Amino acid sequence: MKFKAQDKQNQLIENITSSHLVIGVDIAQESHVARAVSFRGIALGTPLEFTNNDEGFRLFSRWIQDLLKSYKLSKVIVGMEPTGHYWLCLARWLTNKGIEAVLVNPHLVKKNKENRDNTPSKSDRKDALVIADMIKNGYYSPVRFNPETYEELRILMANRDTVTKRLNSAVNQIHRWVDIVFPELRQVFKILTCTSAIATLRLFPLPKDISRLTTEQVIAGWKQYVQRHAGLWRAEQLIALAKRSVGATKALHAYKLHLGQLLEEYDLATRQLELIEHELKLVLERIPYAQKMLAILGLNATSLAGVLGEAGDLSGYTHGNALLRHAGLNLAEASSGKWRGKMVLSKRGRPRLRRFLYLMTMCMVMTNPDVRALHHYNVQVKKLKKMKSIMKLCGKVARMLVGLAKSNEVYNSTKVFLPVA
Fold it and tell me: Residue 76: enclosing H or E segment and its boundaries?
């Protein structure tokens, strides 16, 4: 079955009938502005400003009922921009009240802001009217809150990104500290975050501390943290290098305090990351088709959790191409007359979903023989550039994920990644 975006667009337009009251809401942190139009785009009533709390939402509800009664309309559709996280409370409240809530693309709102008055002016009331116009023209998408399992994955993966950034920052600062205070440590340990190197930084970080120790004392210190320590030769080398170190010799107390805080941040981020990884595996076990996907060579729990957290239940997608559009991996072209522009990725979608689909594909290219064979076929036989082949395989992976989720079948490489002769 071919997936056609135009069919979806037609359905969205046909959804707006003559009995609809179309409302656009400009979202802010504390107060929102609402404007209403008919299905033809005629402005109805007066603008309303209401607060982002229960009292404001009740006022908004009474305003809607007054407009429905005044203009003899029977249906309501409310649209808004997904501005940060400020729209979530209103969207949930509308959904609980049985009112259809939809979202519009902020990029399109900016593009369409001159349609009404042919000026680049911007205000909350004007933005609300532009949003209402876009809804009646079918430029919206329904608000769909994911089931709790997928919502947990999204929150955990967002938290994982934050913790990973903190961990990387701590590691980078530890590298900087070593380069300034004890640069010779790199000659002993190639990886400064290995267990023995971290133990050295905890116990005797300064070269002058190490130079006064014996090899037995260094090894005894390592044994506090690791059973299989770095060895006698490394201990001797460490002491010898410490005695002729060219590192900093002033403000050592401040440097030592700084390192202690960096190691605390490193330990905290490491523990949090391990806890998140454990929780992700427990959540994935509650998704019926997730374990069958994890059995695929090259598909790991982190990437799958990232895709499911951003995309939601894959069995609800009509086609894998819908997942690609959601990620912004669909193709876009700019052409006019005889001129034909390059085909590029639209990048109108969720960047985190786009990242995890790409990382998942790259991992499968490196470790899955079926995907690697298809990549070589694209590059050597079809003469595609390597990155174009990867993007093409992203589409294959997306269609595979949606197909497996909808059918709940076991992965069969001959159905998915068999090259065409």
Answer: strand 75-80
* Contact predicate 37/22, CB 8 Å: yes
CATH architecture under which domain 16-142 falls = 2-Layer Sandwich (3.30)
Whole-number Å distance between alpha carbons of 155 and 132: 30
Helix (H, G, I), strand (E, B) or coil at 21: strand
The CA distance from 95 to 4, in Å, is: 28
Assigned token pair, 284? 């994935």
Rounded to two decimals, the pTM is 0.85
Backbone φ and ψ of 218, nearest 5°: -65, -45
**Overall average pLDDT of the 321-325 stretch:** 91
**What length is written for the chain?**
421
Q: For the residues 236-241, what does the mean pLDDT come to?
A: 94
> Which run of H or of E encompasses 353?
helix 351-367
**Structural domain spans, the chain:** 16-142, 151-281, 290-333+341-416
Quick one: fold of 151-281? Helix Hairpins (1.10.287)
Mean pLDDT, the chain, integer: 91
Q: What are phi and psi of 45, to 5 degrees?
A: 65, -165
Query: Helix (H, G, I), strand (E, B), or coil: what is residue 33?
Result: strand
- Given a cut of 50, whether residue 1 has pLDDT beyond it is no
Confidence at residue 227, expressed as pLDDT on a 0 to 100 scale: 75
- The whole-number average pLDDT for the span 89-108 is 93
Return all residues near 285 (Cβ < 8 A) that are at least 6 apart.
291
Across the strands, what pairs with 416?
Answer: none
